Request: fold
Amino acid sequence: MLNKIVSRRTLLAGAALWLLGTSVTMAQTDKVLDVVVFNYSDRTLFDVTVGGVRVGGAGPYPYSGRRGKIGARFSNGPQTVTWRVGVAAGEEQGEVVRSANTPTMGEIPSDARYVSVHIYPDAAVEFMFSRRVPVLSKRGEAIDADYRRRKAAQQSES
Reply:
C-alpha cells in the first residue's frame, strides 16, 4: 500500500512539475502583443505577416503606423516577415516581398504591450517593443525629416 501511495504521489508531483516547467517555458518564449506596422515606402503594403502571423497592412508613408492587430502571439528569436506590395488600379496583384534581413524579436520585454514592425524602402525590417503606443524608429525619424523637407519645398514652389 505504501508503494502505491508513494508512486501515486511521485507521479502527481512529477506531472505537476512538468506542467509548471512547460508553462514557464511558454511564458518566456510566447507573448501576446498588439502590433502596429510602420511603412516608410511610397507604396501601400498588404498582408504583412510576421512569423506566419498576419498582422495587417499599412498605407504609404506618411499614412502608416495608424492601425494594427490586437492580440497577436509571438515567440522570441528570428522571424520571417513578408508582405504584398500594392499596385495601381488595373494592374495585376502585387508581388509578395520577403524582408531583406531576418529580424529577430530577441528577448521580448516582460512589460511590453506593443511590437512595432518598421518596414523600410530597402525591404529591411526592424522590431521595437513598447509599453505605450509605438512611435517612429530612429531610421524612420530621418525618413520623416526628409519627407517634410520635400513637402515644404513643393509647397514653396506652388
Notes: The longest strand covers residues 30-39. Residues 22-27 have pLDDT under 50 and may be disordered. Helices lie at 2-29, 138-157. Strands lie at 30-39, 45-50, 53-58, 68-75, 81-85, 96-98, 114-119, 125-130.
